[in-house]
Each structure stands twice: as C-alpha cells, then as structure tokens.
Design a protein that fits this description.
The complex is a heterodimer of chains A (599) and B (382). Chain A is an alpha+beta fold and 599 residues long. In chain A, 39% of the residues lie in helices and 22% in strands. In chain A, the strands form 7 sheets. In chain A, strands 2, 3, 4, 5, 10, 18 and 19 form a 7-stranded mixed sheet that branches. A 5-stranded antiparallel sheet of chain A has the order 12-11-23-22-21, with helices on both faces. Chain A starts with a helix and ends with a helix. Chain B has a 3-stranded antiparallel sheet with strand order 1-2-3. Chain B is mainly alpha-helical and 382 residues long. The radius of gyration of chain B is 21 Å and the shape is globular. Classes of the chains: A alpha+beta (599), B mainly alpha (382). At the A-B interface, helix 1, helix 2 and helix 4 of A face helix 8, helix 11, helix 13 and helix 14 of B.
Chain lengths: 599, 382
C-alpha cells in the first residue's frame, strides 16, 4: 500500500489523466458524428439512390472443360450445353416460398434447396446454381411460372459429356461439384462453391489443365432486378484439350471381352510406358455424375458391392500367385543359387519341418531345370530356391522389381501394396518370420499383396531387360489456340542392375510357358508370345486368375496384364483372354498401316 | 494507509439489510443506459434476422439474445455484490486460468470459418477470449495498484506489456487479430492513467511505428487485404471491399430519419454480411437514420462518462484502474466497430457492446458493468 502522500499525488495525476481520456473519447465521437453527418445528411440522397439501384449482379459463365481425344484423334470426352437454374440470393424476398415452389418442379427437397442457399458463403449478388442440367419439360414449367421465381435465372452452361458412355470410365474419371473438403485444400483454394472439378481419373489428375477460366458478367440492376448497365464482361476461357496414349478401339475390344467378369487389364508399350488400354470391370457411366445425383443414386454407386468406382488396376491389392515366380527365379539366378544346368526334383510336395507344401501337380513334375520349372510353374522348384534365398534376399529382389511401391502413373490414388519382411511381421503380428512364410512367398502367396499395375510394371521391366519407364496416359496438352502447352516424352525413371543373361533365361522360360507350358491357351499363330500364368489363392473365395505376357517375344512391342477376380485358373481363364488382346492389337496395327498405305 | 475493507461498514447489519443498502445505491443511470442499449439491440437483431431461415423459427436470434441479456444481468449483479478487493485477490489465478483456457482453445477448440475461437461447455459455446478481457483488467489493476511507484523503472514499465503480450499472442494464434488489439488498447489506457510520463508514451508509439514492417510480415494475407482495402475499398468492389462499400451505402441511405425499422433496403435485402453481429451499426444507420445513430452514440457516451466518473471517484487506485480498464474496453469496441462500419477503420470484426448478437460477449459486457457498479457502491460507503 502507498503512503497517504503518494496516494494523494497519484490520485491527482490519475484524475487529470482520466479527464484527458474522456477528452479523447469525446474527440473520437465527434469525428464519428461528423462522418455520420457527411454520409447521412450531405451525401444521404446520393447513397439512398445508390441503395435503390445499387445492386451489382454478377453472373458467372462457366468455362467449357478441355476435350479428351484418344491416340488416333478420336474424340472421347466433350461438353454439351445444359440449362441450369440459379438464384441471386440478395434478390429473393422469401426463400421458403421460392424453394417450396421450386421443389415441386425439380423434385428436389425444399430443405436441401434452402441448405444450398444458406451454406453458400459467396457474395449475395453472385448467381448460385441450385440445379444443373434441367430437363426440357422442367425448363418450360419454370419459364411459364416465372413470376414465382423472382431473383432466379436460367443460364446455359457447358456440361461434361462422355461420348462412349462407360468406355474407359476408370481412366477418364468423372467431374462433379467441388466438395467442402476440397474447397479447403490449397490446390483448389481459388475456386468457389458450386464449381465443377475432376473427381477421379485423368479428370482429376489433369484438372488444372482441363478446367479453363470462368468468365464473368457484372451488371447493375435496379431494385426490381432489371438490368441497367453492364459494368464488366470477361469471357470464359475454355480448358486445354488432352490427347491420350489410349487406343479407343483396343479399349473397347477389351471391355467387351471382360463382360460379366470382374477384374482388370492393362496394355502398354514397354519401351515408352505409354498406356494403350486400361480396363477395370465392372465399370460405370461417368455421365450420371454430370446431372445432379440424388443421395440414393450416389449411395447405390458408392456402396455397390462390386465396387464399380474403384479402378482395380491401382486401387485394389491382390496376392500375385505364380506370376511372382519370375522374381524368385531372377533372384536365384542372380544369387548363383541356380543356373541353366542345375535341376531340382519335384515329387509333388516340399517338406519344411513338419509342414508339407504341395505342388499344384500332385503326381510331381519330376526333374526340373529352371526353364521347364517356369514353363510348368512347378511349385516345388520355387519353394526350394526360395528357401535357399531366404526372406531378406527375396524381399530385396521383390522391391527391386518395383513391387510394394507406387509406379508414379498419372492417375490419383495409387496404392502401395505390401512386400513383407521379418521386421514387418514382428511389428504387425508380433511374430517371428517362419521358414514356411518364405516358402509361401516364393510362389507369390502369403502376406504379399500387389496392385495389377505393379505386376504390369514388373512385366515391362523384364520385357525391357531392366529399364523402368514411367507409365502415362497423356501424349500432349493443347490449348484452344492450338498451342502445345505440354508434351509428354517417355521418361526413364530407373535402370536396375540385373544381368542380361538372367533376363534371357527368364524370357526363354516365359516363351516356353506359352509354347507348351501352363499358358498354352494364350498362344496365337501370328506372333510369338512370352508369358506367365498365375492362380492366386485367396481366403475370401474362388482363386484369382492372372496372366502376364509380352509380344513379340524377341522384340517386345506390348505388355499385357490380365487379372480376373475370382476367375479360377490363370491358365484357362486369363491366358486365352490375353492371347485375344494381343491378336487384336496387331490386327489394329496392321489395319492402320494398310489404311495409311492406301492414302 | 489501512486497507479498505468494505465489509467493515456493513459488519453489524444482517445480510438482507446489507444487500438492501446496496440495491438502494446502485447507479441506476448506468444500468438503464445499458438496458436501453440492449433494447435497441434486440430491435435491430429482430429487424435483420426475422426473415432468416432457421429451423427453430424466425425469431430464434431475438429470443436467444434476450436470454443472453437476462443471464448477463444476473452476472452483473452478482459481480456488483462481491467487494472488488476480494475479486482482486484471485487476479493472478484468473490470469493463469485465462492462459490455460486460451491454450486449450488452440489445441482442441471448435473450428469455425478457419479459426479456433470457441469451446463447448455443457451444450453451449463460449469464446474464452472475451472472458480473458475481464481477467486482464482485474489482473492489471491489481498489478498496477501494487507496483505503481516502480513504473518509472523501465523494467516494471515493460512488465504489463509482457503480461498482455502473452494473452495477445494466444489470441492472435486463433487467429483473432481484432480482439488481440483490444487487449493492447486496454493495457495502454490503463498505463496512461498511472500518470506515466509522456516520454514513455511517445517511446511506445515510436517502437510500434518502427515495428510496423515486422508486424506486417506476420499478418495473414486476408488481414493485409483488409488494411489495403480500408485504404482503398473501391479496389475490389465485389470481393473483400464489398462489405465496406455496402456498409457505407447502408448508413448513408439512412438520411436524417432512416428508412424505418424493418425496412432498410440494404439490410433487408441481405446485401450486408454479418449484419446482426459485426455490421449491426450499419443497420441502425440505415433504418433509424442520423437521429437514431445519435441516440445510440449518446447512450454510449453516457456509459463511458459514467465509467470515467467512477474511476475518478473510486476509493482507491485498484478501483480506479479497474474502472478505467472497463471503460477503455467498452470504448475500444465501440470505436472500432462503428469506425469499421463507416469505413474509418479496417474491418476487424469486433462486436458492438450490448447491441451485437452473441452470448459470450453480452455476458462479458455485463460483468464489466458489474465491476463499475461495484466500484461505485464502495465509493459511496467510504
């Protein structure tokens, strides 16, 4: 506490300072009042007029997205005009009545219309799209009852159109209104609610190229919503067109072949990484997303038990089964465990401690050298060399050949899969790695999980003898004025250190697979194919059927990976399909050459 | 000097008598000015929100605001009754509690519109930064009244700024720059009252001025935009400058007598965003005109005048500082809110005391008035 004297002194000072404070308060209020006088009395009339007229209505003109062409210049995705119903929130006097009236016409919940208006955080003078792509009869009804919809307008905007319906739907993807979550993401920060963005596939991956720039038309309207003057017009700029590496006809052919099956097919050029076809089946029609879906429609698609939205090539993981044996073989040759001369006897089973691992041929293959073992897919041979390699080596070569890693393809959402190791099993299951696990893994079973795209990557690498090319779908991106925005070249991303000799042995084995081994049904007369079958057991049901192959054998032009989910045997289900695809590819190629020569 | 114990003068009376005496001497001018402001606020909130689409019915906002006012009044009298010397005893715990809650808000507060400012408590949302203003006022009053004589020592002079700075930093992180600035202004005014020499005041301003480029670099883009747009709103008439222009048009179109309650062109057509919270003054300007705005300003001046008077007549320095803190808190809010509506200040989104819609802020305002009543009562009985 203070002494009486100092208290008195400070009392005086504080009282004086408090008076100063009050003077400051009064001064500020005087400034405020003078300003009020200026705004309300001096300029009042002018502002009043402005308030009556002042209504700058801003209409957004959506830009048409860029078009998508296949490798032969065939148009796959374009835009069509659609009529949208929009409102200018500021001009609606009674939201409830408006939305009640509207819901009767467009069959949309009155409350969800209100939600839409309420959750829009934009300027109340910006037109807000309530319903896209109205049907003709609804447009007519709204036009007839125009008096009920003051403050609303019908505008013509471009909508996405997928010309071939379901064709390549997983590759192309689809577009839809931007979600709240996406709006908060930095990549979309410059967009606003109601904007259309690519949601999956190439539409998503190349969204920034395809989207274009919105146009804008600001007009001054009076209190009744009548246009007085146009203040500013900015025309929309259409997005860039993209030209794919995809061959529309080949894609179509494969999709027909996949009818009523589930699974995936990838066809690419091994020496460039260009994807010629990528099929995931069952598929969907991306056009349905263009019209506004009801929640029920969306749920039907999203919760469909066949998982139609999932691109099985990169969004699903499977055990690779016997197609994996090529990796075990590569590892064993590289590590000097086997060579062309060595052979292993297959009695039809392989004993590890108390456990007996079976060969698929119960009577056994007898004496097998490496090329025969690959051709016959002899389990016992690979069990034996797998165990000699041990898990560490096996894990090393599996990763070296690209499994357990994203391939870097130009599609969103690629999965990594799983390449197990001793440490992984200890961390995940709190168990040590058993010799049986190694034996299992050496034939592509057990914990190992891969995407078909990773297997395809491994296949291309064998065809290329060690070169990794990044997979891609887009040849070039061209602006509306014809200027090349971007051109994509084959991109060599890695070269692995495996000897020429090893690849020769593997390729020879794969050739024998198709000539007289498990992949005989892939054989076609015209061309020599090298391949490998796989039948992956899975606890959930029927086996998955695999076939991987490249052709021609001596100078690979294409690689094909086929996976039929729960299809059964790789040699009877997947192999003939792959053979047909390769035949179709060469047919298309020679037709084109013939056509070109005609002209 | 003996410590003033207000309970002494009441010690021989029954509890009922004590409170009756207190009620008799309450500053009714202050209370009724505040209630008038609240009524004006209710009218404006009803005017701007009665067309709003809310599930619970159109007058939900008005109803809630009425409840906030009643709860506020309860807090006001509760705070008025407890001797402010007793309140100052928990100044330090209050300060630390504020810090803890503000840290908690940053970690697990409710996020709305990109900032974390709210916490959920018993089904209600609270904005702890509001209560922290009261905590700061009590804490600084306690500190300054104790250490006043040492303030000429530069170390002691910087201490209050450090205490405030910590709170400001936590609030800036939410981010809520406007509220953080209120904390700074309150501290500045309270220190000014201590009689600190003008030399120091000039030094503070010079430091602030020289720090401006650094502060500028710490601001977020939208905050910089607000300052730039404040200087030139026409730069982006449909984007961020939109609010300022629309608000000015609304106020201007009110003229002398206003467009009439419930019939403002701008406000009824929803040209103004956040009109029942931040831009509430524009609605008053538009619907009640110059006359209505003057009425509002007079009520505010009355409240502030009372605040200054109570500070001057306080029985001790603790009371003086508390009353000054409360008055400066009110003043800063009024000045910034109205200044922003008229385009005289950057848009910071501070609410207008007793008028703007909002529970936490209303209760905080009433607690502040409760402190003023409290100090006033003790000055009568000493």
């Amino acid at each position: 506490m203070f002494s009486q004297k100092s208290k008195k002194l400070s009392k005086e000072i504080t009282e004086k300072r408090l008076n100063d404070f009050f003077i400051l308060i009064i001064l500020c209020f005087v400034i405020v009042i003078i300003n009020l006088w200026y705004l309300q009395i001096i300029r009042g009339k002018e502002f009043e007029q402005k308030a009556i007229n002042n209504c700058i209505r801003s209409l957004v003109e959506e830009a048409p997205r860029g078009e998508v062409y296949d490798r032969n210049g065939k148009l796959l995705v374009t835009n069509r005009p659609a009529v949208n119903f929009s409102v200018i929130p500021a001009e609606i006097s009674d939201y409830q009545t408006m939305s009640d009236n509207l819901s009767l016409i467009i069959f949309m919940d009155s409350s969800s219309i209100l939600d839409k208006i309420r959750s829009s955080k934009q300027n109340p003078f910006h037109a807000l799209t309530i319903k896209r792509d109205l049907e003709k009869d609804k447009i007519i009804t709204i036009e007839e009852q125009k008096y009920k919809f003051k403050g609303s307008l019908l505008t013509v905007q471009p909508e996405r159109k997928y010309l071939y319906q379901n064709l390549a739907s997983h590759v192309l993807g689809y577009v839809n209104e931007i979600s709240e979550e996406e709006l908060n993401a930095p990549t979309f920060s410059h967009l606003s609610g109601g904007d259309i963005v690519g949601k999956s596939g190439l539409e998503r991956y190349y969204d920034s190229y395809l989207r274009g720039e919105k146009g804008k038309k600001d007009v001054e309207v009076d209190a009744l919503g009548r246009e007085i003057t146009t203040i500013e017009i900015k025309n929309p700029v259409a997005g860039n067109d993209i030209y794919l590496t995809l061959d529309c006809e080949l894609q179509q052919y494969i999709e027909q072949q996949m009818f009523e099956k589930k699974g995936s097919v990838i066809v690419s050029e091994p020496f460039t990484g260009k994807i010629l076809a990528m099929v995931s089946y069952p598929d969907y029609n991306p056009n349905i997303f263009t019209q506004q879906m009801t929640t029920a429609q969306w749920q039907e698609i999203a919760q469909n038990k066949d998982n139609v939205l999932c691109n099985r090539n990169l969004h699903s993981i499977y055990p690779p089964g016997s197609v994996f044996k090529v990796i075990t073989a590569i590892a064993a040759i590289e590590e000097g465990i086997v060579n062309l001369g060595s052979s292993i006897y297959c009695p039809g089973y392989y004993q590890v401690g108390d456990l007996s691992f079976k060969c698929w041929k119960e009577s056994g293959h007898g004496k097998q050298a490496i090329i025969e073992a690959i051709a016959n897919s002899c389990n016992v041979f690979f069990y034996t060399i797998g165990q000699k390699l041990g898990i560490d080596k096996l894990n090393y070569y599996t990763k070296l050949l690209g499994l357990g890693e994203k391939t870097g393809i130009d599609l969103p959402g690629e999965l990594e899969g799983l390449v197990p190791s001793e440490d992984w099993k200890r961390d995940f299951y709190n168990q040590s790695w058993y010799p049986g696990d190694t034996v299992n893994m050496s034939i592509g079973q057990g914990f190992l999980l891969v995407t078909p795209l990773q297997i395809h990557n491994m296949l291309s690498l064998i065809a290329n003898e060690g070169l990794f090319f990044r997979f891609y779908h887009v040849e070039k991106i061209i602006s509306q004025s014809g200027e090349i925005i971007k051109e994509f070249e084959p991109q060599l991303i890695n070269k692995i250190d495996i000897s020429q000799n090893t690849f020769q042995i593997i390729k020879e084995g794969m050739k024998k697979v198709v000539e007289n081994g498990t992949g005989r049904l892939a054989n076609i007369e015209e061309i020599k194919i090298a391949g490998k079958t796989g039948t992956a057991q899975n606890p959930q049901g029927e086996n998955h059927a695999w076939f991987i192959g490249f052709a021609p054998y001596d100078n690979p032009e294409i690689c094909v990976t086929v996976l039929i989910e729960h299809g059964g045997d790789g040699s009877t289900v997947a192999a003939p399909l792959a053979g047909n695809i390769i035949r179709k590819y060469f047919q298309l190629k020679y037709n084109q050459i013939a056509k070109a020569e005609q002209f | 000097m003996p410590e003033i114990k207000s309970s002494h003068f009441l010690s021989d009376k029954s509890f009922l008598n004590q409170n009756l005496r207190l009620v008799k001497h309450i500053d009714y001018t202050l209370i009724f000015s505040v209630i008038d402001l609240c009524i004006l606020g209710l009218l404006v909130i009803y005017s701007t929100t009665h067309q709003e689409i809310v599930n619970e019915g159109a007058i939900q906002f008005t109803k809630s605001q009425l409840i906030y006012i009643l709860v506020g009044l309860f807090f006001c009298f509760f705070v008025a009754i407890i001797d402010y010397h007793d309140i100052s005893k928990i100044a330090i715990p209050l300060y630390f509690l504020s810090i803890i809650i503000l840290v908690y808000v940053l970690i697990s507060g409710k996020e709305t519109g990109g900032s974390r400012r709210w916490i959920q408590l018993a089904g209600n949302r609270f904005q702890p930064a509001e209560f922290a203003k009261i905590a700061l006022i009590i804490f600084l009053s306690d500190f300054l009244s104790r250490q006043k004589d040492k303030l000429s020592d530069f170390l002691y002079f910087t201490l209050p700024f450090l205490f405030t700075g910590l709170l400001m930093l936590l609030i800036y992180k939410q981010p809520d720059l406007g509220t953080a600035m209120v904390f700074f202004a309150i501290t500045l005014f309270m220190i000014f009252i201590t009689g600190i020499s003008w030399k120091y005041i000039i030094i503070v301003f010079l430091i602030l001025l020289s720090l401006f480029p650094i502060i500028w670099s710490f601001l977020r883009d939208y905050q910089r935009n607000r300052i730039i747009l404040f200087l030139n709103p026409e730069m982006d008439p449909l984007g961020a400058g939109y609010n300022i222009i629309q608000s000015k048009v609304a106020i201007g179109s009110g003229g002398l007598f206003g467009q009439g309650l419930f019939s403002g062109i701008q406000s009824q057509l929803k040209f103004l965003p956040a009109q029942h919270t931040d831009f509430v003054f524009s609605v008053i300007g538009e619907e009640l005109g110059f006359i209505g705005a003057l009425l509002l300003l007079s009520l505010f001046i009355l409240v502030l005048r009372k605040g200054i008077r109570i500070a001057q007549e306080a029985p001790d320095l603790l009371g003086t500082f508390m009353a000054t803190g409360v008055t400066s808190f009110m003043f800063v809010h009024i000045l910034i809110n109205i200044g922003m509506s008229m385009g005289l200040m950057p848009a910071t989104g501070l609410p207008l005391p007793f008028i703007s819609y909002g529970g936490t802020f209303m209760i905080t305002n009433f607690i502040a008035i409760g402190l003023l009543l409290n100090i006033h009562l003790r000055s009568i009985f000493t």
